[in-house]
Specification:
Blueprint lengths: L1 H18 L3 H9 L5 H12 L5 H5 L4 H17 L3 H9 L4 H14 L6 H8 L11 H15 L12 H21 L1 H6 L12 H15 L1 H5 L5
Length: about 230
């Protein structure tokens, strides 16, 4: 009964914190919780009251939840268009590399319906972020991968830079690899003419022919052609 009563009390304090009318009241309720519940509660109320900031995150004691606090702060800065500041916030997390990539992936997801030129405009604030020299490569990789999952066009024809073309190629090859893995004999007997959403061009046809030759090797010659 004593343990159950303690658990009920902790749960009620958490509910009180999340329903509090202001940050001060919510923080008091969080402080009454045992760690690490206190810290997860504090991160939740800081987000709720839009009070995420480095100083506020410093009051979170558990390293994991302190990192989560700074991560959410970085996300907020990125949504506000503050790319450099968002990346600096990422650097203060234990998973700074993953944090930076996550922010770029979210930017890419926000412009999936755009043309490559329009998507490049969304990438622009991230190009000169100190310490994120591979931002274009990471962005285009995420952009084409998310478009492939949504079966949207993977045409690299409008790509404004080499990293965009390379990302399109890698995404296309991932699709071919998946088709080959699912049914290698059928694939090598009659290689897929295209990937969903792909626009066939001289360049992409050459990519496909090269990939099929490498993947199928002698197997393609050993299988009778499809009637």
């Amino acid at each position: 009964m004593g343990l159950a009563g303690c658990a009920d009390s902790e749960a009620q304090r958490l509910r009180d914190a999340l329903a509090a009318p202001d940050l001060v009241t919510a923080t008091v309720s969080c402080d009454a919780l045992a760690s690490p519940g206190r810290d997860s509660c504090l991160v939740a109320v800081l987000e709720r009251f839009e009070s995420l900031a480095p100083a506020a995150c410093d009051t979170v004691r558990t390293p994991l939840w302190q990192g989560e606090c700074r991560f959410q702060y970085a996300e907020r800065l990125a949504r506000q268009g503050q790319a450099a500041a968002a990346f600096v916030a990422c650097q203060a997390t234990p998973f700074h590399r993953e944090c930076g990539y996550h922010l770029l992936r979210e930017v890419a997801r926000g412009v999936l319906d755009a043309t490559p030129a329009e998507a490049a405009a969304a990438l622009s604030p991230w190009r000169d972020v100190e310490g994120l020299n591979d931002a274009p490569r990471l962005f285009w990789k995420a952009w084409f991968r998310e478009r492939r999952r949504a079966e949207q066009s993977l045409d690299p024809g409008g790509c404004p830079e080499a990293s965009c073309v390379q990302a399109a190629k890698e995404s296309y090859f991932e699709s071919l690899r998946a088709l080959h893995h699912a049914a290698p004999l059928a694939f090598c007997s009659a290689p897929a003419a295209s990937v969903p959403g792909w626009a066939a061009t001289d360049t992409t046809s050459a990519w496909q022919a090269r990939w099929v030759a490498d993947a199928c090797g002698q197997r393609q010659e050993a299988i009778p052609p499809a009637p």
